[in-house]
Amino acid sequence: MKNILFIVIGTLLFAISVTQLAMPNSIAEGGIIGAALLIYFATGLTPSISTPVIFLLLLGVSFRYLPRHMVYKTIFNVFLLSFFIWLLEGVYAVPMEDTLLAAIFAGIITGIGFGFIFQAGSSVGGTSIIARVLHHQRGWDLTGTTLVLDAAVVIIGIFIIGPVFTMYTLITLYIGKVVTDYVLGGFDSKKAINIISPYSEEISQRITTELAASATVFDAYGEYSKEQRRALYVIIPTHRLLRFKRAIKEIDPNAFIVVHNVKDVSGGTFSIPHESHNAVSNE
């Protein structure tokens, strides 16, 4: 039931983006809906008709390589999308004065919609199906592969909507990918930090007592300095990064700090429970 709800919400958001932002502002998309929009801009044929037709041509690929439950969800999703587009085409939408603004919000709404759809283990067909196949067979990144394939579809739009609106479309696709990643990975993003300092003991103690974080300690050896050091590896929420770096610099202004973006964190312990932190702080 939860997956069906996610599919309905995601598909509705995508249909809103297509009918209220993309179609009136000559902005295309990727995948089969991108091809359907290019057909619409060239001939006037509604995407609510061309979308399922294009999808049916690709259905054989999905049956061969993808799990049946995913194929069935995609079939449901594509025809639901066509229905929502048909329904929302009747809602009058005018071109925006600022096409860039339309492209940005089309990307945001599309990204949120795709996030819900991917969370439910479905897709909207086309390049999403190909991306799913490559993800299952080769382990390729789902959203990154979709972006590349979508961009290839959109490049064809240069000959239909022109280079300027094609560039607006690429902006929409990129923003959509970023937003999709946030929806899939969660908005509570994390940072991984490597710290090398001769004062690693003091830094580790302060991390534990004041910042409620847990550090993993490695033995490190400097090839240039020929010195042995303790390296700390810490995972923290992104919003605490500035405070974290400030605390380290107070102990060792010359500490070597490397910060990495972390897409997903699961298992293990990277923070100290609130009760334990209070106990340590009161000692």
TrEMBL record:
Residues 214-267 form the DUF2179 domain. Its main location: membrane. One of its GO terms (cellular component) is plasma membrane. It is a multi-pass membrane protein. Gene3D superfamilies: 3.30.70.120. Pfam families: DUF2179, YitT_membrane. It is found in: Cell membrane. The keyword Cell membrane applies. CDD domains: YitT_C (cd16380). Keywords: Cell membrane, Membrane, Transmembrane, Transmembrane helix. The chain crosses the membrane at residues 38-63, 75-94, 100-118. This is Uncharacterized membrane-anchored protein YitT (DUF2179 family). It comes from Sinobaca qinghaiensis.
